[in-house]
Amino acid sequence: AETVNGLGTRKNALVLRRIREDGVEPYEGSVGYVHAVRAAGLRCAVVSSSANCRDVLAAAGIEDLFDGRVDGVVAHERGLRGKPAPDTYLEGARVLGAEPAEAAVFEDALAGVEAGRAGGFGVVVGVDRVGQAERLRSHGADVVVRDLSELLESR
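Predicted structure:
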């Protein structure tokens, strides 16, 4: 019988193979938003609990859009608590040289929205990909959009 750890390792190897062989299709609106933010001279970091974050970014062809990355690997190395603790977002701000109150968090998970609020970030944007707009608001999102491109449309 396989151990839970063994099953997890095997599953992760399969996921990585699929990522590398099949690629990853990013949300077009999110990529467009990050391009616009970069064109405006702002710095960006990606914060993810996934240990496969770097592989996903590379497979999607967007790794170069970010000035910093705080993922599951970095969190483990630095002893950062996961969401809803704000540790990984605070580390992302630190990597960029930004104060949390001067930075924004963009998050589609309830625990991530809570983390952004708990970290004292200037703006917490909830991204409603699964029909939970009100829950994102109640967990601390200042603004809720279905796609980040909506933020460009309102300029």
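Summary: The beta strands are 45-47, 68-70, 104-107, 123-127, 143-145.
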